[in-house]
Known about the structure:
Blueprint: E1 6-11, E2 16-23, E3 26-34, H1 36-40, H2 47-69, E4 78-84, H3 88-105, E5 109-113, H4 114-120, H5 122-126, E6 133-138, E7 143-150, E8 154-160, H6 166-176, H7 183-191, H8 218-233, H9 240-266, E9 270-274, H10 281-294, E10 297-299, H11 303-306, H12 310-322, E11 344-345, H13 373-385
Helix pairs in contact: 2-3, 3-13, 4-12, 6-7, 6-8, 6-9, 7-9, 8-9, 9-10
The site of 5'-O-[(R)-(carboxyoxy)(hydroxy)phosphoryl]adenosine has 19 residues, from helix 6 and helix 7.
Amino acid sequence: MADEPLVLGIETSCDETGVGVVRGTTLLADAVASSVDEHARFGGVVPEVASRAHLEAMVPTIERALKEAGVSARDLDGIAVTAGPGLAGALLVGVSAAKTYAYALGKPLYGVNHLASHICVDQLEHGRLPEPTMALLVSGGHSSLLLAPDITADVRPLGATIDDAAGEAFDKIARVLHLGFPGGPVIDRLAREGDPEAIAFPRGLTGPRDAPYDFSFSGLKTAVARWIEAKRNAGEEVPVRDVAASFQEAVVDVLTRKAVRACVDEGVDHLMIGGGVAANSRLRALAEERCERAGIRLRVPRPGLCTDNGAMVAALGAEMVARGRSASDWELSADSSLPVTVSHVPGVSSVPRESSEPHDHGHGHDHGHDHDHDHLHELSKDNLYS
Length: 386
Ligand code: KG4
Ligand code: ZN
């Protein structure tokens, strides 16, 4: 284990400042500072508020993660950071922090994809992912079915939502029901006491001519909102638990049906589910049931690893190091719409830094990063403050 890569990962794509430390596929620390309470009164994440919260939380969270892991920053083999997709301003805080630490410490920097990280995190819980991996990613910002022959270099989108993300639908319905934000956990809880068959809400994009792996939750959202409105207009009480259960059933029915179908069609005998909505208890139960029936092994990380966190970024970073993927260079920037097919952002030129610096280090390796740490440490201090 000691020779596996030790990587620190930084995640700031939305409202969670996450910093994780992993060694290979072993989780050493997962520190998270959330600004979710600051957004609650707005009913959704406010980008400017998130960016500011990241800025304030960044250094303390990095220090907390290193302390929790019991390692020194000098021992790291690399620093990974979410380069996208996500909120531009929020991502920028993480990317700037990662670059600064990597530069000052003389460590390789890996700008990685948020979605690929959501998949890779399962290695921390259930060991190496088989290849290819089929992944259903469902959160407040994304709902995708991905086929990943190689999580570090080859991730193929099979389908995605054409309107709202699954978590977004939970959040919007919770708002209509006056249940607060985020909506997923509270709907999950209330649904346990409701009847999932009480109301037949529509299953989007499940017709014979619909795209087999795409999702649509906007029609469902409208149907639920109309149903509630009609009850209210008629002066009747809204059966919140039944609405929650029936709405949730419509979402997880479609998600699991399409995911299992993708596995069968592609001949993949296991499925991983990640993202915040993967914390949903009914989604887990139904996926388990349907996977078992189809002979598919289900892998779902524990809820804390499903929501946005730094450990998932560190996990993918460690995989990049282990597989010898080239590091990012100092030009790395946040890309709010980084395509899912880009697992990580490699450096543009093979030796980007050496050429722009006053000293000739005489290194010819293809990393775009210097392994002569002590020498680089001195240099970088000059550069950082000049
Ligand atoms: O992955 P995540 O933390 O952040 C994003 O990248 O969006 O996911 C947050 C989303 C929110 O929409 C939240 O309502 C949803 O995940 N969520 C849930 C549950 N827990 C969180 N949705 C359904 N059931 C849950 N138990
Ligand atoms: Zn996410």
